[in-house]
Amino acid sequence: MDAQVWTSLPGVALGGGFSFLGQITAGRQAARSEGMRREADVAEARGAERVSRCGSSSPWRSRGYASPSSGRAPR
Fold it and tell me: What is the reported pTM?
């Protein structure tokens, strides 16, 4: 009986180690995903703020040029 207990202990230890590593990896991935989600939200808010601040006035139009994305030549 003692031999059977001692031969199963390494398997239990190995399984516990793999479980621990899996939990650590899942926690890191969740934290990374949350950070990326937060960065995307902040970037979206900043972009919306810039658009609302600019309105219809464009620095390109005030200088007599079409916007760079329109592909038209200057006036």
Answer: 0.52
